[in-house]
Design goal:
The chain is of the alpha/beta class. Helix content is about 35%, strand content about 25%. It has 18 helices and 22 strands. The strands form five sheets. A six-stranded mixed beta sheet has the order 6-7-8-3-9-10, with helices on both faces. Helix 13 (about 360-375) crosses helix 14 (about 390-405) and helix 14 (about 390-405) runs parallel beside helix 15. The longest helix has 16 residues, at about 165-180.
């Protein structure tokens, strides 16, 4: 096994410096954590190390020898493996076919050796689309080890895993470390970095700002290094009122694409943050779209004691608003300006009209400027296209737009997915403040830490059904088993048990 060094790596895109003289050392048999805000340069750095991007300046050195990667194939041949956050697998192929994809001379003995090492030998002939998320991730690691990877790059590897699957991944990563494999672990979760990594490097604005030994790092120090200052402590989520703001009874959807919702019922009080936890793909999207009127559904939805009107626009007018999971495709129009996106979906409101029919550009720009100031949205100008904003600032704009409309109920799906720690803190604080004024928030999130830190109550969704409402101090083992579909746990915590 060899030591890898990145020396003075730089990359520029136009006027933007994605990386500015980054140097770090990755020791054999060590887990090297990589933290940073959105836009800090983590993905660019990893893609340079994997040969997918060529740097403008700097060197990659392995065992004292300078490496020149013109493609990912060169990096793979040199022993670099990358497990993407969104798996690069053909779901209709078997595990074996996915591992051998692109291979000219498949090696059955080498495949069996790697598969036995990862406890996947019994799954080689299984179609990948039939496997749970945790096993699919292991297939990605199998692909890398089959190609004799000695440097493994893991990009946000726990994003879609249940707590038991996270523990299994950590055990596997530690086992690989003992065998001498070098691992770069990219995460935005400080707790994970502190629990797993031997060394932690923090990037900010394309530069290395700090490197810590695991024993010498604290969450506060890491957070401050990431954002350049200390984060204000979060305020306490205020207790909810007694008024039932949202009542859902027997909500059911058809299983056309994805999971069906199977007669779910729940209530959310005024000022309450009600969490829906689960592994992605168990009906979260279907539930959210049925609630906000985007998907036909059986059953009943009531707002403040009155039946919610059918259809998205009617429910929005009634005060039921929505932050979709995919901000780029469903929440924002990237080639429109910040100002235009700030009133998107509400263009007919009298506040944005003059003479009764013409859009008032000055009023819209003032509104967008006020939202940007309130939510610390960084942008070139309100006239700039939204695509010019970082992911975190896009998400803050989407959140600011919906909260500014003073909804009675807000359904938010993965509202902090892929955003940095400072943006997460800002969005969470905005939710708490809105709920203190009576907003009811249905928070559907794959981030279990987010659910536990924000919510007054939570349910677990699995295969389109909901558990009983649970307090946030419920044991993690219970939540993990519910997320994994453990039959015995569902007998105890399922609805009607």
């Amino acid at each position: 096994m060899s030591t890898w060094k990145l020396d003075d790596i730089a990359k520029r895109y136009g006027s933007v410096r994605a990386l500015d003289g980054v140097s770090l050392t990755i020791e054999p048999g060590r887990i090297h954590g990589l933290l940073g805000e959105n836009g800090a340069g983590k993905s660019t750095l990893v893609n340079i190390l994997f040969g997918a991007i060529r740097p403008d300046r700097g060197h990659i050195i392995c065992a004292g020898r300078q490496m020149r990667f013109t493609s990912s194939r060169d990096a793979i041949a040199a022993g670099v493996g990358l497990v993407h956050q969104h798996f690069h697998l053909v779901e209709s192929f078997t595990v074996r076919e996915n591992v051998w994809l692109g291979e000219t001379r498949p090696d059955e003995a080498r495949l069996w050796a790697a598969a036995n090492r990862l406890a996947l030998a019994d799954q080689l002939n299984t179609v990948v689309g039939q496997l749970p998320v945790g096993i699919r991730q292991r297939v990605e690691i199998l692909k890398a080890l089959y190609r004799r990877a000695t440097l493994l790059l893991l990009d946000e590897p726990t994003a879609a895993l249940t707590p038991p699957e996270v523990e299994m991944l950590f055990a596997l990563v530690r086992e690989l470390r003992l065998s001498g494999v070098s691992i770069v672990f990219i995460t935005h979760k400080l707790r994970e970095a502190l629990e797993l990594c031997d060394t932690i490097t923090v990037l900010r604005q394309g530069r290395v700002v700090a490197t810590y030994a695991q024993a010498a790092a604290t969450p506060d120090e890491l957070a401050a290094a990431m954002v350049g200052s200390s984060l204000a402590p979060p305020s306490v989520t205020p207790p909810p009122g007694n008024q039932i703001r949202l009542r859902v009874n027997g909500l059911t959807t058809d299983a056309d694409v994805g999971a069906s919702i199977r007669g779910v019922s729940f209530e959310v009080r005024a000022g309450e943050i009600f969490g829906v936890a689960g592994v992605d793909g168990n009906g979260q999207t279907e539930l959210a779209e049925a609630l906000v009127g985007l998907r036909p559904a059986g059953g009943q939805v009531w707002l403040d004691g009155a039946p919610a009107p059918p259809g998205r626009r009617a429910r929005m007018a009634a005060g039921l608003h929505y932050i979709p999971a995919d901000r780029c495709r469903a929440g924002l129009v990237l080639n429109l300006s910040v100002a235009e996106n700030a009133v998107l979906g509400d263009e007919v409101a009298s506040a944005w009209r003059k003479w009764g029919w013409c859009l008032d550009g000055r009023a819209i720009r003032r509104h967008a400027t006020a939202l940007a100031a309130q939510f610390a949205i960084r942008m070139p100008a309100v006239s700039a296209a939204v695509m010019a904003l970082s992911g975190g600032n896009q998400q803050k704009l989407l959140t600011a737009r919906e909260l500014a409309r003073k909804p009675r109920v807000l359904v938010a799906v993965n509202p902090t997915w892929g955003v940095d720690i400072a943006a997460v803190a800002a969005i969470h604080q905005a939710f708490r403040t809105a709920c203190s004024s009576g907003l009811s928030l249905v928070l559907i999130s794959n981030e279990l830490d987010e659910i536990l830190s924000l919510c007054h109550r939570l349910v677990v969704i699995h295969a389109g059904r909901l558990s009983q409402p649970l307090p946030p101090n419920v044991p993690l083992t219970v939540i993990g088993r519910l997320m994994a579909g453990d039959a015995h746990t569902w007998e105890h915590y399922g609805v009607g048990s």
